[in-house]
Amino acid sequence: MTPNVQVAWADDADRSLGLPCYETSGAAGADLRANFPDKASIDLAPGARALVPTGLKLAIPHGFEAQIRPRSGLALKHGISLPNTPGTIDSDYRGPLGVIVINHGDASYKIGHGDRIAQLVVAPVVQAHFQTVDALDDTARGEGGFGSTGRS
């Protein structure tokens, strides 16, 4: 089933940037663009974070979420990523969509109006039922924690 995601523009959005779109037929993520109200840009210093507006509001269908993920090219070439990867947009959120961007690089990076800054992936959600028990079942891994299944 292909979910229908409704999109509304923020009051100060530049609508000429268009809606999120898939750049290829096999793309899992639709590109999100920086949509600054004044069509400006920001310089993101090394180690700095910023909330970048997209100019969008979404209505995700019940039973789905939208995940915000970094763009691999920005990460590799400039160290630009998202600190809360993946970010989740719940189906009942109706506010403006902003992307938290961080500069892990060693130089300032300019994010311009209209730049592709992240990807949006729509995915199904299953809500679990949580229950308390006195003991958990045994597994081969048991209580082996971080790195316990890696090389020794």
**Order of strands across the biggest sheet?**
1-4-8-6
Helix content: under 10%
- What global shape is seen? globular
> How many strand units?
10
Quaternary state, please?
single chain
Report the C-alpha radius of gyration, rounded: 19 Å
Write structural notes for this entry:
With 152 residues, the protein is mainly β. It contains 1 helix and 10 strands. The mean pLDDT is 95.
Fill in the keyword field for this structure:
152 residues, mainly beta, 4-stranded antiparallel beta sheet, single chain
Briefly say what this structure is.
By secondary structure, the protein is mainly beta.
Show the helix and strand layout.
Elements: E1 6-9, E2 30-33, E3 41-44, E4 49-59, E5 64-69, H1 72-78, E6 80-81, E7 87-89, E8 96-103, E9 109-112, E10 116-124
Antiparallel strand pairs: 1-4, 2-10, 3-9, 4-8, 5-7, 5-10, 6-8
